[in-house]
């Protein structure tokens, strides 16, 4: 098997404070209250598609132990540590060169660690379809989520549906990437049927992405190219620590996707959410009869509707008479905030 | 000085759950956020009126150490331990016989440990006035609070204002004790000027109260009379443990006040509250510009009005968009409840 999975797990999840903190961001938390963290759920989705020795996690140096603890089945050497945050392009370049050093024929999926997928069988079908395509081509494939609302918080991918379908009527050439739109533009996008949300999930062969970095981002490719003899040795971490900070901080979307030629989108509809807001967590979670999401601890509610209550396991919580409120409790912090004001939480946490 | 102070500190404060728990009831908590517990504030009010060696605390055996910790200045032997709860009459009988064994001329004030008084100088003036009266008479004096609203949660004392004033136009004979009234009756009471709230604060000489128990409650007086040789010795606790459970569980109001002849009321107005409800705590506490009471921890509020937020010192709390809500957090428990529904808290805690 040449399939490799790369899980990017370096985010800090500041919008979910105090549930998510810089010490333990949301990918390391059982956000859905199902007994598995978002990182573990991400790994679970790929079980059988990728052997454990081909699962890679790129994360901040401070989260390395947490990854090893939550995913004990993957080799420790597959946990790559970023000495500093440099957005997704250097992160993906590092792991791509690292994989290439070991398996030049690798076929890769790159995914965030903190998203949710409701329909896992459909997700797996789409991933397999995309992997088959990149196995036989130099394509860069991104998954495009079928939009269900004029969301202004996501970037959009414009597909060229009029072009001949490239594979099984499922994969299309990308016309353009569009940044987060205003409401009017988003409404126009979703009235057409060729705009999709950019989920940040990519499929490509390792030679394709490495070549793309060489062509479009020499400032990023050169340091990783220079370490060919170091990957997998005891000197790897120290060498990475020396070059990483000098990489430009740039997303893979800007660095590669918007520049490369052979870019494709695989539209998909598997109940995806980036869990970017408490509102999206509410939407994707199990709700009681009164539309409350109750996660963790021993929670009792009375005359309470449309709330999210998220607390640590040991906590006993009684809530009476709230409507549309987030109650989040962790360690030495308690947040109570109206759901419609959740965009202020980042300020509250400072 | 023959003045003695008796603080009754055996209550469990279940209405203030989870701030108040059976392990640490409200008298042992800094409820007002002023740096002193209600027990300590009760002691503070009598400073200078009663020497420390004449301060007595009667409490449940399990709270003895907490009393000693919070009032280190009083002799340990003055902390009397009830082996079980038997309401106020046996409690007062025990401490009265105990004091009499040591000081037959004692003049006593008996007070709950969990009330608040806003105007302490006026409180002290009233206590001194009552003590002067009982020093020279066999009177049983109870303080009667000038009612400010038709409260149905308190008992009322009907004073005989038409009778000749007994002392300084301040102390009057009691016509009758009235149990907690319904609203209509309470409204009638406060339209007249001779009904007062029964605050449960009593003043009498030790010989008066001991005689009253002998006359009206022989079942209570006899066991304590039988222990005259034991008080103050190493055998006291064991002897008390043997007789205490056999005492009838009865309040001093039923046992003595409603039966005895020489009962007087000292009307008073010193900003008293029994802190029997979260509402009364709200009323008596310092409030911010938006009528919020914020006690303990690091509490920040936004668009929040008419709330009580009470948490442990270490807690960081952010509250946005609440109105008229109690937020109480302690150890492993969090309560959020509308103020107008606070009577249900006892049920929530079960």
The coarse overall form of chain A would be globular
Helix content bin of chain A:
25-40%
Placed side by side, the strands forming the largest sheet of chain A appear as: 6-9-7-8-10
- Rg of chain A from C-alpha positions? 21 Å
Biggest pleated sheet of chain A: 5 strands, mixed, barrel
Using CB atoms under 8 Å apart, which protein chain pair has the greatest interface?
A: A-B, 27 and 28 residues
Number of strands of chain A: 17
Distance between the termini of chain A: 46 Å
| Chain-averaged pLDDT of chain A | 94
The H/E string of chain A reads EHEHEHEEHEEEHEHHHHEEHEEEEEEH
Poorly predicted spans of chain A = none
Oligomer: homodimer
Structural commentary:
The structure is a homodimer of 350-residue chains. Chain A has 350 residues and is of the alpha/beta class. Helices cover 29% and strands 25% of the residues of chain A. Chain A contains eleven helices and 17 strands. The first copy, chain A, has helices spanning 38-45, 64-70, 88-102, 120-135, 183-191, 206-216, 218-225, 236-244, 252-257, 278-284, 345-348, and strands at residues 3-8, 55-60, 79-82, 107-112, 116-117, 140-145, 156-159, 172-178, 195-205, 263-268, 272-273, 293-295, 298-302, 308-310, 316-320, 325-330, 333-338. In chain A, the strands form four sheets. A five-stranded mixed β-barrel of chain A has the order 6-9-7-8-10. Chain A has a four-stranded mixed β-sheet with strand order 12-14-16-17, with no helix packed on it. In chain A, a hairpin with a 2-residue loop joins strand 16 and strand 17 (333-338). In chain A, helix 3 (88-102) crosses helix 6 (206-216) and helix 6 packs across helix 7. The N and C termini of chain A lie far apart (46 Å). Chain A binds chain B through residues 18, 300, 302, 311, 314-322, 325, 327, 329, 332-338, 341, 344, 348-349, and chain B through 18, 300, 302-303, 311, 314-322, 325, 327, 329, 332-338, 341, 344, 348-349.
